[in-house]
Amino acid sequence: MSNCVLCLFIGIIVSLITSCSPLTGETLQESSKLTFIDFYSDECPNCMVMQPIVQSLEKRYSAQMSFQYLNIDTDGKSLFDSLGLRGNPIFLILKPDNTVIYKGYGKVPELALENAVRKAIGI
């Protein structure tokens, strides 16, 4: 499978995880509300495309959800590796107890990502 086809395939995968054990990791900031994590890399073209979309979501939904940006080459590497994640960008939405309720991979359509946020916060 060529890299372009693989990138396209990864870019269209979006999965909703309904039950999972809580995450643990020293890089997670404690929060009493939902948390959106953006695992990105400075070398990733899709990460750069998704960055303004995630920042727009943060502006609109920061009252209901905290947003964290973890560079998988530096500050987010240990958590990224410990979760067995591959590829980037990867988006997680966590409950306050760090249970994953959403996982999105690659270049997720803006509407799909916003719908995941809205569903998580109950809108």
Identify the CATH homologous superfamily: Glutaredoxin
The string of secondary-structure elements, in order, is: HEEHEHEEH
What is the CATH fold-level name? Glutaredoxin
How many domain regions? 1
Strand line-up across the major sheet? 1-5-4-2-3
Give Rg in angstroms: 14 Å
Write a brief caption for the model.
With 123 residues, the chain is α+β, with helices and mostly antiparallel strands.
What does this structure look like?
Helix content is 37%, strand content 22%. With 123 residues, it is an alpha+beta fold. It has one domain (3-121): 3-Layer(aba) Sandwich (Glutaredoxin), CATH 3.40.30.10. Helix 2 runs parallel beside helix 4. The termini are far apart.
Keywords:
alpha+beta, 22% strand, disordered N terminus, Glutaredoxin, 37% helix, five-stranded mixed sheet
Topology readout:
Layout: H1 3-12, E1 14-15, E2 34-40, H2 45-61, E3 65-71, H3 77-82, E4 90-94, E5 100-105, H4 110-121
Parallel strand pairs: 2-3
Antiparallel strand pairs: 1-5, 2-4, 4-5
Helix pairs in contact: 2-4
